[in-house]
Amino acid sequence: xxxxxxxxxxxxxxxxxxxxxxxxxxxxxxxxxxxxxxxxxxxxxxxxxxxxxxxxxxxxxxxxxxxxxxxxxxxxxxxxxxxxxxxxxxxxxxxxxxxxxxxxxxxxxxxxxxxxxxxxxxxxxxxxxxxxxxxxxxxxxxxxxxxxxxxxxxxxxxxxxxxxxxxxxxxxxxxxxxxxxxxxxxxxxxxxxxxxxxxxxxxxxxxxxxxxxxxxxxxxxxxxxxxxxxxxxxxxxxxxxxxxxxxxxxxxxxxxxxxxxxxxxxxxxxxxxxxxxxxxxxxxxxxxxxx
Length: 291
Fold this sequence. Notes:
Blueprint: E1 3-8, H1 15-19, E2 24-27, E3 30-33, E4 36-39, H2 46-56, E5 61-63, H3 67-78, E6 83-88, H4 96-105, E7 111-116, H5 122-136, H6 141-153, E8 155-160, H7 165-169, E9 187-193, E10 199-205, H8 207-225, E11 228-235, H9 239-254, E12 259-266, H10 269-275, E13 280-286
Helix pairs in contact: 3-4, 5-6, 8-9
Protein name: EDD domain protein, DegV family
GO molecular function: lipid binding
Keywords: Lipid-binding
């Protein structure tokens, strides 16, 4: 059986990673600035996007791929594949998953497997990479799904922002709404958990240095329990803070016998619409399923 993998533009995988696998495809979300519409990562880069919102203070909106967009993509893939594994941004954060399900229900000539990552950015990207690796090693969909479910519950995206305005305005703030009005002079630590698929608060600290220390403590606990770790440093326009965090992580990993794969990525403009430019943090997954 010939299988394609479809994900969306919020997976934040490097373009070269996607292009080197001819069976791996993406469908983009969209960014809307008043009368202007941009295709995520195609019409506007992360650098251009974050520069624009910092300069103008605009609060853009986003839109998911339509059912028609998915139908067009599925029909194109149907020409060359018998099965499509379709993994997408958390259904708690976007209607992308529902669009994929509705479109898949209208397809008859190809077997489409839909999977809710319950994550975003490289939290989703990690699941795509695992799917590709398992496919290339001859695993069937039931075996892949079993591994993805384990990975999903062992994946977290941890991040901070200078304020919660973008998350609040975009309606993606989830349980972190409890922090609104209480983070003056504090940095909130937020988590997108693979269990819930929504943003939840993990606490707040004073300043970037203490926030990095708190993140490092979270990572150290993982390093003590697991030998196989995938980790991605993520950021909007706060590359300096992100690189400081990366240096600290590399130092800690060097002190342990850890099989660490480390990425560094700017988040997609679509995700940036809901976090703002000040975001930085990490995506983390660990366990024997990575061995």
